């Protein structure tokens, strides 16, 4: 069995990690988060139709995208999905993962759009 990460999944968005990743550049932060918000849902959509051979790759992409911005809550669940790389289209666990990933992604995007991006915009306006 694959070793699981030690990411704290109670953290929806780790702003300290993200600031370190972007070196505190608010313009880069805005660009990175905008790209994430645009692309991450496509990885989840790909999971919905992925066959057993594609499941792991799609989950890995979602995990990597979440991990890069410090979205530990989403990254941790995507990692669990990635480790279950043989889920067939009719496997009931598949829908459980997809529903949980969808809920976590929705929460993350809401936090980014309602809190983080407006805060970054205030910093660039001052």
Automatic annotation (TrEMBL):
Superkingdom of source: Bacteria
CDD domains: HPT
Segments forming domain HPt: 31-85
Annotated GO MF terms: protein kinase activity
InterPro entries documented for this protein: HPT_dom_sf, Sig_transdc_His_kin_Hpt_dom
Keywords: Two-component regulatory system
GO biological process: phosphorelay signal transduction system
Protein name (database record): HPt domain-containing protein
Organism in which the protein naturally occurs: Kordiimonas sediminis
């Amino acid at each position: 069995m694959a070793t699981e990460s030690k990411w704290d999944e109670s953290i929806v968005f780790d702003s300290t990690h993200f600031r370190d990743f972007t070196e505190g550049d608010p313009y880069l932060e805005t660009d990175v988060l905008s790209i994430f918000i645009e692309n991450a849902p496509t990885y989840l959509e790909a999971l919905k139709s992925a066959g057993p051979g594609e499941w792991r790759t799609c989950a890995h992409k979602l995990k990597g995208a979440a991990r890069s911005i410090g979205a530990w809550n989403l990254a941790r669940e995507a990692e669990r999905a990635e480790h279950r790389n043989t889920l067939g289209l009719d496997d009931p666990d598949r829908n459980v993962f997809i529903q949980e990933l969808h809920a976590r992604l929705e929460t993350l995007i809401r936090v980014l759009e309602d809190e983080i991006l407006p805060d970054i915009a205030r910093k660039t306006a001052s």
